[in-house]
Amino acid sequence: MNQTLVTEFIILGFLETPRLRGLLFLGFLGLYLAALSGNLLIMVAISTSPALHTPMYFFLVNLAAVDILCTSTILPKLLGSMVGERTISYGGCMAQLFFFTWSMGAELLLFSAMAYDRYVAICQPLHYGARMGSRACALLTGAVWAISLTNSSVNTGLMLHLPLCKSGIVEHFFCEIPPLLRLSCAPTRLNEAMAFTADVFLAIGNFSVIMLSYGCVIASILRMRSAAGKRKAFSTCSSHLLVVTLYYSTVIYTYIRPASSYSLHKDKVVSIIYTSVAPTLNPLIYTLRNKDVKVAFRRLLSFH
């Protein structure tokens, strides 16, 4: 413990060559602008359209807010490091860890809330109004934000009490739990145990709930007599399940193993999916294919 504690970190990033730096910068800038504009447009369109004031779109507004929080926590600093200093202060690193972990937990829980909403709508339509009223939706989203905030506070608090005194080089493009644990000069068993527990609950637990909900939904769809109705319902389910599977599998891969098995190149590629790609795709998959949302967009963009 005679080593000097780290007060500033160097974000290693992608170690890109000068030739690739411009392409990577433009790529991440495009992802950030697409995620920001797409999710903001969804929030405004749904908020200003009374026809979209339903539980499904209420959850979508929250998902858009989570995606904006996630990308704005990661990508501006990444873009800045590509054209300037790669350093980040200790406080800035911990703030990035806190807000990213908060947004990630909220996204995982929102997927479950959305799956539950579809389950009630398709499998128990007569009870939908009672079970998914405004009070129930408010309680669900309140629980989503509170549980994810608690998880983020616990894991960030444990990281704050962990002495980081090694090289100060973060082998990643942002401050995440696995690469930070490798900088510790003290045992990290408690931190790893808490991250593992959170992943089991937030990722594996919620993924199991979603799979169970959609198992019931698919069974109900198969009993439908209308072929057109089946195609429409399956299209909605398959899109949601694709994003959910992609997001959950990458998060589980990152957090459910020891920090010692962290791999610089593999983990950075995996992290791009849930920090940049998924928040950009969510608006396209969940709303832009929806006829009601397209009408809301046309009204929003018109000058009448």
Automatic annotation (TrEMBL):
Q: Which CDD domains match?
A: 7tmA_OR13-like
Q: GO terms for CC?
A: plasma membrane
**TM ranges:** 23-44, 56-75, 95-116, 136-154, 200-222, 234-256, 268-288
UniProt cross-references to InterPro entries, sorted A to Z? GPCR_Rhodpsn, GPCR_Rhodpsn_7TM, Olfact_rcpt, Olfactory_GPCR
What Gene3D superfamilies does UniProt report for this protein, alphabetically?
A: Rhodopsin 7-helix transmembrane proteins
Keywords associated with the record: Cell membrane, G-protein coupled receptor, Membrane, Olfaction, Receptor, Sensory transduction, Transducer, Transmembrane, Transmembrane helix
The name this protein carries in UniProt is Olfactory receptor 13G1
Say which species the protein is native to.
Sciurus carolinensis (Eastern gray squirrel)
